Each structure stands twice: as C-alpha cells, then as structure tokens.
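Fold this sequence, please.
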Amino acid sequence: MTAIYTIEELVRKLDAITNHEEKLYKILELYMELFPVQDASLYRYSPIGYFAEGIISLSSKGLSHIREKRDDARSYNILQGVIRERKAKYCSGIEFFKQTSSNYAHSSNDHALLVSPICYGSVVIGLISSKQFHIGATIDEDLLTSATLYGKLVGRVIEDFQGAENSSSLSKRELEVMQRIAWGQSTKEMADSMNISELTVKQYVKSAIQKTGANNRSHAVGELYRQGIIS
C-alpha cells in the first residue's frame, strides 16, 4: 500500500494544473498509478436527486467522455453504502451482482467493482469507480482506507480549483431562487411567495445555472450546496 504521506504529496501536485479537463484526467491517471486498477471512471454526484452523472473514463484504451451515463445511486447497494458512510467499498464475485442493479450493464469481464467517494468536507461530490483490476490484486481494508483518503484529498483539489468565484457573482434574488429549489418549491410556488412572475423565476434559474457553470438546475443547486452557499 502506498504510504499516506506519499498520497498527500502526489495529490498536492495536482494543484499546479490550471486546466480543468487536464486536472480531471490527472486525477484518474494518478488513481490508476496508486491503486491496482486498470480503469477508472469519474462521476459527479449531486445530493439533489441522488444522481451520479458520468464525466470521463480512463483505461488502457485511452480517455473517453461518459456524459451519457446517469445513474440513480439508490439503485445500487454499493453506491448507497459509499455515499452514506463516505468510505471506499469493494465487491466481487456473487456479491458484485448482488450489490449492483439489474439495470447495470455487465460485460463478460466484469466481476468486481471498487467505488471511492470524492468528498468535500462531509459532502460526497463525486465518485471514482473501477471494474478492471491487475491480476492477483488484493483489495483489503488498508487499500480501501487509502482510496477513501484519496477521495477526500481530491475533493479539496476540485472544489478549491472551481472555487466560489462563479457562484459569488449570483445576485441576492438568484441565490434565493436556488435556495427555494433546494427546499423543493415549484416555479409557481416561488413566483407566488416572492411576488414575481414565473418567467422571472425561470430567468433567475437560467442565470444561476450559467454563472455556476452547471449543466442544469439540479447540478447548480448541488454546486451551491457543496460550497456551503445554500443549505
């Protein structure tokens, strides 16, 4: 197992990377260097909606985008445990099929799964999953502890890089609308309680999504939630 101080030192070097796409690539590349895996897929996770959304995947075949992948974490027992406990988990053999959803697309080579949470503080903001492992690889508690640590360190790197510069530019009204979305209010409910039109609410939402660099309103709420700007 790689020493903890070595993991911390290697992850710290990621701070020097200024390009967002390159940083995400290096996060997966380093993960594959530190742990006995032959592939690694990076997912964004939002506590709003419980969806894990694919970003990129790295394997011996190279780098690929997996934005079409969008899974409900509640459909996977192993993901529920990873998110609830904020700890890396591994399953193989018959347990692999028990822990993954019947909707999960298994290839003939899929017999095991390692999932590591990416955390920022006490919030899971992403996941790294691997299905292919080096021959004779041993996935024990020490390795899972190291994978959990890696996720915590990487979470800080990602959030510090993205920062709050985008979200800090949100107006008071935009923040109020996003907070109300987090509370579960509909567009009509927000319009009525804020004494504005539904069209204005939608404009605030659209503006907030653009300023946070999010893909949709759930993603924007998740980003603001993770940064502690809304609760």
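The chain has a mean pLDDT of 86. The beta strands are 39-45, 51-59, 62-65, 70-72, 89-92, 112-120, 123-130.
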